[in-house]
Amino acid sequence: MGQSLSEPETSKQSAFCQNDYYKVGSSCMQGWRMHMEDSHTHILSLPDDPGTSFFAVYDGHGGAKVAEYAGKHLHKYITRRPEYAEDVKHALQHGFLDLDEAMLNNEALREHMAGSTAVVVLIKDNRLYCANAGDSRAIACVDGRLDVLSFDHKPTNEKERERISSAGGYVEYNRVNGYLALSRALGDFGLKRNAQMLPTEQMVTAYPDVEEREVSESWDFLVIACDGIWDVLSSQAVMEFVQEEIGQGIYPQQICENLMMRCLAPDCQMGGIGGDNMTVIVVCFLHGQPYEELVQRCKEAVAKRQASTKKRRSHSNRSHESEPESSHTPPASERAGKAGGNGRLEDESSGSESERSEELAAPLLAPNANGKDGVVESTTAEPEAAEKASSSSTEHTVTSSVEVKQKQKESAPASNNESVDESSEEIDLK
């Protein structure tokens, strides 16, 4: 994990925006790490393709430079690809490679031993494309159920290990050449120097996998986050957490903050789990309806799941009562003994390849360093004026290389292309 602070930095940069189709919230937090190296972007309408939305999280390592550059520029490289109008998937794949090549040719970036994951969700004409390089992740809730949109790129994956070996590298301690814990990334040019190999064949490549989905009115929300979240909770557990929060009428930026506090380790002795930088974007699908419609759908889905769980447990208890005492299932505390101290399952979830629910995990809100429940003080209701102002906010990018400032209240109305949260850094992408 490297060096850690003596106390976690829990101040947050949060923002929200919305239009008739999406209500979006985001937040990032430095946590126990010495520096903040994440970046994220949410744009409701791309300047080069109005009506197309773009959401992305970049988890930097070895420094923030690559994540910052990607946050400012990746969407431009994608939309300017010649095949973008007809083949968005290939535009995404080659846009990632174009950005990587541009950084390689940038003297200020080329010599940095830094890199970044990138997970992007682009929605165009009711078609969703999720491009991923690394171990940040995107999931969706569709008709109340989980849909995993990306797959983690780890050196231990058979396909990834084969490419690493073919390029002259090796996997040791579950890391590329013994030190990089992911097998695809932007940057990391020290691991892309085999002159005999194409960019897609290097031991670490920026070439993303792309998943496609058709968006219908059954889509509820997306969660896009760095591995600081997924190392602690499975995709199913995150989906259920967000679903329950929406069902209580909480707004997405507050949900992001609550989720990060849920995942924050109570101390820095957790082996890195819950001690990483954290960044989360929650995208709620409105489908032209008020947010309250989604709140009601999530509330009904939660009630249905809870009733089903209660029924299964009741049936299980009746079955156990008829068995000899020696054959009873061990108590939950014993069955959960192999989970991490902050609710992390022992088998690391890697996209939909090994997802399972965390029914036996810790309570939804873990205590923070002060011994109190990890819920930020702000209430679920926002001032009506701020909520109305958010509808005109279409573009937001955060590049968090400096110390995270204390989150300010969202009280001032936003102009057409400004984030409502004035504490977030603004970048003009036009």
TrEMBL record:
<keyword id="KW-0378">Hydrolase</keyword>
<dbReference type="InterPro" id="IPR036457">
    <property type="entry name" value="PPM-type-like_dom_sf"/>
</dbReference>
<feature type="compositionally biased region" description="Basic residues">
    <location>
        <begin position="307"/>
        <end position="317"/>
    </location>
</feature>
<dbReference type="InterPro" id="IPR015655">
    <property type="entry name" value="PP2C"/>
</dbReference>
<dbReference type="Pfam" id="PF00481">
    <property type="entry name" value="PP2C"/>
</dbReference>
<keyword id="KW-0464">Manganese</keyword>
<keyword id="KW-0904">Protein phosphatase</keyword>
<feature type="compositionally biased region" description="Low complexity">
    <location>
        <begin position="377"/>
        <end position="403"/>
    </location>
</feature>
<dbReference type="GO" id="GO:0004722">
    <property type="term" value="F:protein serine/threonine phosphatase activity"/>
</dbReference>
<dbReference type="InterPro" id="IPR000222">
    <property type="entry name" value="PP2C_BS"/>
</dbReference>
<feature type="region of interest" description="Disordered">
    <location>
        <begin position="305"/>
        <end position="430"/>
    </location>
</feature>
<protein>
    <recommendedName>
        <fullName>protein-serine/threonine phosphatase</fullName>
        <ecNumber>3.1.3.16</ecNumber>
    </recommendedName>
</protein>
<dbReference type="GO" id="GO:0046872">
    <property type="term" value="F:metal ion binding"/>
</dbReference>
<feature type="domain" description="PPM-type phosphatase">
    <location>
        <begin position="23"/>
        <end position="285"/>
    </location>
</feature>
<feature type="compositionally biased region" description="Acidic residues">
    <location>
        <begin position="419"/>
        <end position="430"/>
    </location>
</feature>
<comment type="similarity">
    <text>Belongs to the PP2C family.</text>
</comment>
<keyword id="KW-0479">Metal-binding</keyword>
<dbReference type="InterPro" id="IPR001932">
    <property type="entry name" value="PPM-type_phosphatase-like_dom"/>
</dbReference>
